[in-house]
Amino acid sequence: MMNPMSKLAARTTMLKKLTFKSLRQRFHYYVPLQFAVSDCFSSTCQLQRLPETRKPGNSRAFFNSQITQRGRQGNLDEARRIFDNMPFRDVISWTAMLTAYADNGDIRKAREVFEQMPKRNAASWNAMISAYARNPNLLYEAYAVFAAMPCKNSVSYGAIITSFARGGMLLQAEEIYLRMPANWRDPIGSNALISAYLRSGEIEKADRVFRGMVYRDVFTWSLMVDGYCKCGRILEARGTFEAMPVKNVVSWTSIIRGYLDIGNLKEGFGLFSLMRMENVSANSTTLSVLLDACSVFGGIREGTQVHGMVIAMGFEQDTFLGNTMIAMYSRIDCIDAARKIFDAMSKKNVVSWNSIITAYVEQDNTEEAYAFFAVMPEKDVVSWTSMVVGFCKRGLTEESISLFELTPEKDEIGWTAIVSGLVRNGENEIACQWFGKMMREGIKPNPVVLSSILSSMAGLAVLKKATPYHVYVVKLGLDSDIFILSSLISMYSKCGNLSQAYQIFSTITASNLVCINSMISAYAQHGLAWEALDLFKWMLEGGYKPNEVTFLGVLTACSRAGLVQEGNHYFKCMRPVFGIDPGPDHYACMVDMLGRAGLLHEALELVNSIPNGPQSSAWGAMLGASGAHSNLDLAQLAAQQLFELEPNKSAPYAVLSKLYATAGLKEDEESVRMRMHSKGVMKNPGCSWITRDGNALSAHA
């Protein structure tokens, strides 16, 4: 027996093949059900008569407006109570009740009201078409109502065009548009078709309809401005905007968003100022667009100014804007400001709670995030996933697994979070097990989780286990994804198959920086420094701009090959030539390079010159170099710094203890051991990996 989803897919495919002639034949039987007024008021129905303080006509209009208002508030029970208790109902009353159900997603009850209506007008029919049009799976029903409608108007055509367009059936939408009386097309029908084209990325077709319109309203112009902006054609968007006879807040917001999306904060905020000078009042959407831009591009000053405007314009208690401001302040590292906004919100929804939880997770304050998570009144899948990510970021993999197992509904994003989090924490075997569970649950992996699982294969370095994942990627048709290709290059390289890594890299038709970086790192890992440097020079000649990851690969190559002069050259040109400030990993790599070459004092000078002070990675490289060259004085200095920076790490204790033992300083060796035990620092057991019959086996010391 065919399952419901297969039936639906079959019906949709059939509908796409139907001509409008066959559609009319298919639905010729549709006859609207008619009910007598008396059927709606049976003798068993006890109606409470409302006090009539107005004339019947005025009273009915008042009740109709109350039904509409309650529907917009989502209070369907109250809307129905008012409807049922009305002494007199007209077609507007019935349509208001139908629309209330439709707007709140209760299509079944909307249809019941429609069928019970003693009389229908065009608005009633259009409301029912629009109700079905909201759901792409109800195209048959939407067209059935449209086909049976005795007197269609432009709104009817616009609704059914929208219905087909949302269902991905542009050809049928176009055919209805062409069958629509020409004098009805503008603006409603044309707007519907333009929206359909823009939703599908067909900007040229949308532009053709736009230019052929006899009459355009402000919505038409705003659609095209927004469409051009989303396609990155900001100059055409600006030209269309300037040509508008009348501009409203929607058109202003669209052009402002267009400039902000490409990072042009100056022009975007300039247009906002011009909008206010034109006496066009901003709405919550306009302000949220500005706040989003400030969070993305780190505009602290501008963000604070917009926050001030939110208060001045009376939007302080707007929940949507409050959530946006929490996200903005958290992204620009103003967590205290985000917390104050959350605490001041009189109405919080699940998005508000998720926003503050995510803010603390991004700040690595998992304890505070969990405190909010524990007391939030309602949790959704985003809430659970945010905490899973938070625990993974802190390395608390057992807690993240336990929380994920408790998650009521696990979606693709949640599975991606747990698998990727385990990989980032080096739990490659466990990550593979959870990936297997994900597959058994029928969750189709996305490029992010596949990239992560390929990285886990690289960590296990077992080629026989890694190869099937490559085959799976090809079967899914994801072998052209940039990040998956990058992971495949890294995977084969770490599994020892550099030739396969290069083969994948060489088959990429349009090279990209991510894959180039992976190949440079692959050469570096295999000690092929000159090949890595040649690839770096090739990418510069090809017009690619290197980033921090590129230089990390280049410096690693120089370090492992002992190319001190070349390494110094590339390190010193990072800031002046490429505008890249060296980070902690770059400094650590340089310290390692100098240390390997025996230039310990030069390495120490570099450590002391690091802006904002050296981090643990630099002192770790210094300790390793000192130990390799048996320089006890420098080793003691580096170890002492690591004791303070990473008091729970056992590595500096182990290295220093070994150096004391080698030097015959038994008392100092014992002192280090005693200090380690008194601090409660535990040494991680050694672990070796061997491959037997294609399986990775671990042996712990």
What would you say this structure looks like, in words?
With 701 residues, this protein is mainly alpha-helical. Among the domains are: 61-119; 583-700, Serine Threonine Protein Phosphatase 5, Tetratricopeptide repeat (Alpha Horseshoe). Helices cover 70% and strands 2% of the residues. The protein contains 41 helices and two strands. It has a two-stranded antiparallel sheet. Strand 1 and strand 2 (695-700) form a beta hairpin. Helix 19 runs antiparallel to helix 20 and helix 28 runs antiparallel to helix 29. The longest helix has 17 residues, at 56-72. The radius of gyration is 33 Å and the shape is elongated. The model is unreliable at 4-57 (pLDDT under 50). This is Pentatricopeptide repeat-containing protein. InterPro entries: E_motif (IPR046848), PPR_At4g14850-like_plant (IPR046960), PPR_rpt (IPR002885), TPR-like_helical_dom_sf (IPR011990). One of its GO terms (biological process) is RNA modification.
